[in-house]
Write a structure and sequence with these properties.
- This is Glycoside hydrolase family 15 protein.
- It contains twelve helices and 26 strands.
- The chain is α+β, with helices and mostly antiparallel strands.
- The chain has two domains: 195 residues; 364 residues, Glycosyltransferase (Alpha/alpha barrel), CATH 1.50.10.10.
- An eight-stranded antiparallel β-sheet has the order 5-6-7-8-15-12-11-10, covered by helices on one side.
- A hairpin with a 5-residue loop joins strand 2 and strand 3.
- Helix 10 packs parallel to helix 12.
- The protein is globular.
Length: 577
């Protein structure tokens, strides 16, 4: 059996239903799909191992021409010279939950070639015929339904469905089996129309018309696709183990809900398009997760069942382009990450300002108390490295978050506690967190700087032209810049051996917007967007020399940063008019 090629990350498109998603390339091959939930075991995982992983390939004598989404939906239409492929996941339709693929009339035969492999490719599936066009796919934990407009053939673990010339054909894979009456062409057509309508309704709130408007829409779509509607959680990315650098082993599972990432995403959504509901749902997610796990404090991330994400486990797959390890789970949940908690407070501040009331205040004030009580502790910082230090960025955002949320305190005692903690943090930063040259240090006692400092004036901790910020940015420009973009500073790994960090590069652009150096900000934004694919999606990092996208995909943290700087740039340009 011939194996599909692993696609470049840049070639990946996404369809989804706000429960999970599928990633497919420009040839129409689905290379990654976790049924029913983002963090479930993958049924199609050729993205990480072409020999073991499952896939869903489209075979035809044809040439790719272009692809794009229908309107504001997540319905992906791929045009070849001989036919058009339309892919979608029925949106909030329990009966038809799964993947729908529609082939237009063609003058050549078009064949679906499918190999199901359970548990990331480590488990086999059973195939059971119901009738000529309906088969059961029997996994370790679940039974799925495969239906088609045309007859289904199989040999071994390979399924083939051929759509003859001059005929329209569809295939539906269901992860629910809730539809009892059989799948028909009428149902497929209705699902397409309903899904288009539902997505248009979902994203109609987007009325942004300023600079980079297309990228605001693309980023909003990316974030919505990575949102798990049943829980309110927003996953960091759809994938696991896409490498950040060659041969380093720095591969991670991003299919979980990080406090930091989700809070920054929620804040960006509010600022860019006024979308408050997902941010409120995120606070609800945190409240429920804490109750379920009886946590004394919030851990850095949770799974989509509101549980503590599982510990890291290596699984025997070849890896993307041979880069190992392939991992599921994540071991960073024991870490103290003060900035993650503080970012939740920043999101809450925006929610409260927008709504005029204070949903989930109990959760918010507990987080504020935790930050006020623990700011003096060493933590693992924004980059979640395996060391503890007094990271300056953690202190800075803690101070500003407490000052912001103190405005909403319900008692004078509350407000005084939070403001006093913020005052003490500021004094600590002034005394311990500056380098000999007067720049903001990575951590207390360090003589190095990190690109995270570009956010300090954005968080309103200091003025962008303060002596400390000027010294910091001069050092960043000298030591962390590559081309027009920027690396982060890591303590346990040479960050020059990984790609430029796209979110952090966009923070630098945001800093230059605050300085009113808008042309420089645009150059950085444009350079970052060189790493967006044809559908507007961004991975975590980029290789400046090769143009290669690096890291897990699509990275919601990056899309949030892009929305943030675009909004600020647009406001700054309006003021110039």
């Amino acid at each position: 059996m011939t194996q599909p090629n692993q696609p470049e990350i840049r070639e990946l498109g996404i369809i989804g239903d706000q429960r999970t998603c599928a990633l497919l390339d420009k040839k129409g091959t689905i290379a990654w799909y976790c049924p029913a939930r983002f963090d479930n075991p993958a049924l199609f995982a050729s993205l990480l191992d072409t020999e073991k992983g499952g896939f869903w390939e489209i075979e035809a004598r044809s040439v790719f021409q272009k692809r794009g989404y229908l309107g504001r939906s997540s319905i992906l239409r791929t045009k070849f010279d001989t036919f058009t492929l339309t892919d979608w996941m029925p949106y909030q339709d329990d009966a038809l939950e799964g993947v729908c693929r529609l082939i237009s009339e063609s003058h050549v035969p078009v064949t679906h070639r499918i190999r199901f492999r359970d548990n990331y490719g480590l488990g086999e599936v059973g195939i059971e015929k119901q009738d000529e066009s309906t088969f059961l796919i029997i996994g370790d934990r679940k039974v799925y339904l495969l239906s088609s407009s045309h007859s289904i053939r199989y040999s071994g673990d390979e399924i083939r469905i051929t759509i003859p010339p001059q005929e329209v054909g569809w295939v539906h894979f269901s992860s629910s089996r809730k539809h009892k009456g059989g799948i028909t062409s009428e149902l497929i057509g209705q699902s397409l129309a309903d899904t288009l309508h539902s997505w248009e309704e979902r994203l109609k709130i987007i009325d942004y018309t300023g600079a980079y408007a297309e990228h605001i829409l693309n980023s909003c779509r990316a974030v919505c696709l990575m949102t798990h509607a049943p829980s309110g959680g927003i996953v960091a990315a759809a994938t696991t183990s896409l490498p950040e650098s060659s041969g380093s082993g720095r591969n991670y599972d991003y299919r979980y809900v990080w406090l930091r990432d989700s809070a920054m995403i929620a804040s960006a959504h509010i600022r860019a398009v006024g979308m408050v509901e997902p941010a409120v749902k995120f606070l609800e997610f945190l409240e429920k997760a804490k109750e379920k796990n009886h946590d004394k404090r919030f851990v850095p991330f949770y799974d989509l069942g509101l549980g503590v994400a599982p510990p890291l486990e290596k699984i025997p797959l070849r890896g993307y382009k041979g880069e190992k390890p392939v991992v599921i789970g994540n071991d960073a949940n024991h870490q103290l990450q003060l900035d993650a908690n503080a970012n939740v407070l920043l999101a809450a501040k925006l929610i409260y300002a927008k709504r005029g009331d204070k949903p989930h205040w109990k959760t918010v004030h507990r987080i504020a108390d935790f930050v006020a009580d623990n700011w003096h502790e060493k933590d693992h910082g924004i980059w979640e490295e395996g060391i503890e230090q007094h990271f300056t960025s953690s202190k800075v955002i803690a101070a500003k978050a407490l000052e912001f949320i103190a405005v909403h305190a319900e008692t004078e005692k509350q407000a005084n506690k939070w403001n006093e903690a913020a005052r003490q943090i500021r004094a600590f930063v002034d005394k311990h967190c500056l380098t000999r040259s007067g720049a903001y240090a990575v951590y207390a006692g360090s003589q190095h700087v990190d690109v995270t400092a570009a956010l300090y004036p954005v968080w309103l901790f200091c003025e962008p032209n303060s002596p400390e910020m000027v010294a910091t940015m001069q050092e960043i420009e000298c030591t962390l810049k590559e081309g027009e973009l920027y690396h982060r500073r890591l303590e346990l790994f040479d960050s020059r051996k990984e790609g430029v960090f796209l979110a952090a590069s966009l923070w630098v652009a945001q800093y230059y917007v605050m300085l009113d150096e808008l042309e420089k900000a645009r150059r950085i934004i444009d350079a970052a967007l060189e790493f967006a694919n044809d559908l507007g999606y961004l991975a975590e990092e980029g290789n400046v020399a090769t143009g290669e996208m690096l890291g897990n995909f699509p990275q919601t943290f990056v899309h949030a940063s892009l929305m943030g700087v675009i909004v600020d740039l647009n406001e700054a340009e309006k003021k110039r008019m």
